[in-house]
Amino acid sequence: MRRLMVFLTLLVGFALLSFAGDVIVIRYAHWNALPPDPYNYVKAFEEKYPNIKVEFIQIPEAEYSQKLRSMALAGNAPDVLCLWEADLADFARAGWIVPLDDYIRQSEKLSVDDFIPAVKQLMELQGHLYGLPWCFATEILYYNKDIFDKAGISYPNENWTWKDFEEAARKLTIVENGKVVQYGCDALGFQGLWYSLIGTFGDKIVDEQGRFVFGKGAKEFLRWWYNLTNRYKVVASPQITTSGVVSADLFMAGKAAMAFNGSWMTSVYKDIKDFNWDIAPIPKGVRHYSTLHTGFFAINAKSKVKDAAWKFIEFCMSEKGQELINKAYNNPSARISILKKGYYRVEGPKGPRNWEAVEKTAEFAEWGYTLLPPGLTFDLVKDFNAAILGQISVDEVVERAIEKAKDILGEERVVVTK
Amino acid sequence: MQRAKNKVAYLFISPWIIGFVLFTGGPIIAVFLLSFCKWDMISTPKWVGFSNYVKMFQSGSEFWTVLEFTLLYTLLSVLISVSWALLLALLVNQKVKGTRFFGFLYFVPAVVPIIALTFAFQLIFNKELGIVNYLLALIGVKNPPNWLMDPSYVRWLLAVLNIYTFYTGQMMLIFDSALKEVPKELYEAAEIDGAGVFTRFLRITLPAISPILLFNLVTATVNSLSMSFALIYPLTGGGPGKLTQAISLDIYYNAFKTFRLGYASAEAVILFIITAIVSLLMFILSKEWVYYEV
């Protein structure tokens, strides 16, 4: 009997060992911590595929890009990476990630046609599909409905032009004893906004060949914004931002009728209790334009478990995975069929209600400046602020920006509009 | 026997030597070599000779603005933070009740995380919602400044805010212990001779703590030159324009935001040279005013 027990124990042990041997481990890196239950998409994946275990690596946002590059250089990059827009092109150029074209072609769940137009545009630019956007965010206009109602001005909508914006901003600005107590619009805080607004003035920002296209639109926009800030005083003066986060938000404080910001701010502004507010697309200039933000799921070219890595990406991009991700981070899905289901929508008691604004923006928004090195774009924004503060002339700022871009990107990747 | 003893000694110090070679010496050599290369962390480094240095020092280069701010900031912040730390140490050395409590209060900002401090400063000095401008409005100032975006104020403000960093608190503690070591009889004798407070400070206190003053000056200078990043990056990000872009911040942007590792390495080499020269000068000049025996 004892022998039988020993034999059975050994048998079970070997069975467990052989089972454990079948478990595939994939390493996955992201800058965000994993969301708690019930939105933990990694846990949901592991439950669906018990033979694949995900080893999650969180890398702080401030050092995300350089850390992944260092890991890739050392041949130690994770199997699945969530790469920022500018990094995706560099990683593809270096051969550190594999094209996903064949994977998506063979997938029964995913189709390139189901993604927002910018995904296809990027695929055409890079020649292959190197990554799938884990969700996306864009830049939009926020407005205080109560202030608009009080002034008897109709709300911004998708047909608004910059002329409408300026007229409204002037009417909504209140001056008491020579001091502005309510601005028509808050200053631009998040750095991407400069490029989105310049884009509506005609500069392509990044063209079909991936070149930086800049000049005439930037000058026109900066001059106009300078006047709104200093001459008419309907836009607040620029404030210091840290990584795009302004410590004092005039819109949230109810002291600015309008503000431009990323769509992710809906999850912050939803806590507003003092006034009703809503969102609209950025007004139209010579064209509609806004910037898209995302991270792309990509597969490490040196990964030994590429199929398992693809399974993970496929799950994250499936309706179940997207639902969890959209709900956890309040960001919409880049898959049109899922976007319309609105899993990302988290409404506060006072707003927002016009979610169409995000979905409309997704139709015309582009990756734009996010495809360029962040150091360049951040540096230029500091000069834009200096121009609005009257410390450097607009012409000088734009010329300096072009020179800087040529220095960093190379002359062949810069197109000057005149 | 002696050889065996030496071997054991080397074995004991080997962890530090290996660590130094791998994590300090190696990177220093790598930075020096990279400063002659063009490298974006993707393609193989390409040897470009002195072109990074030429680009840095050519006329119209932004590096001149960066260098000017770094030197100005270092001078101001060292003077202000060392004087402040000494003043606080003198205050907590007075023979009055509650000096320990005040010492604790003075030290509190030094232990608050710098990110929290800078965020608070952004709020305090905000043009529209900040408390400073609110108070100025109460006394009738109609157009209060945009403190952190105005070139006339921002550099001074940064130097002053330096007094809230951990380093100033640490200097205060060092001064405090040095002041406690000054022989009391010197003060008693000077007092009998009719020396006033100011004379006693100049003729007794300063010479007695001069080695510690030198130590604090040198470390504060090195700290300001190379570690200013921690305060400036979250507070102004180097703006407006490049007005508050210290070299340490510029190195970070060039290395990890635009991936121009070669240029950033050249800047690091220049920063190293500046730090070495300034420190050396301070040690040479110290022979004139530092007294090691009181």
What descriptors fit this protein?
heterodimer, A: 418 residues, alpha/beta, D-Maltodextrin-Binding Protein, domain 2, six-stranded mixed β-sheet, globular, B: 294 residues, mainly alpha, MetI-like fold
Structural overview:
The complex is a heterodimer of chains A (418) and B (294). With 418 residues, chain A is of the alpha/beta class. Chain A contains 17 helices and 16 strands. The longest helix of chain A is centred in the first third of the chain and has 20 residues, at 2-21. The model of chain A has no long low-confidence stretch (mean pLDDT 92). Chain B is mostly helical and 294 residues long. Chain B has one domain: MetI-like (MetI-like fold, Orthogonal Bundle). Chain B is 71% helix and 1% strand. Chain B contains 14 helices and two strands. Chain B has helices spanning 2-34, 51-57, 63-92, 99-111, 114-124, 131-138, 151-161, 166-180, 184-192, 197-208, 210-227, 229-235, 247-256, 261-286; strands at 37-38, 46-47. Chain B starts with a helix and ends in an 8-residue tail after the last helix. Chain A binds chain B through residues 63, 65-66, 69-70, 73, 90, 93-94, 177-179, 236-243, 247-248, 250, 253, 255, 373-376, 378-379, 382-383, 385-386, 389, 391-392, 408, and chain B through 40-43, 118-119, 122-123, 126-130, 137, 142, 146, 148-151, 234-243, 253-260.
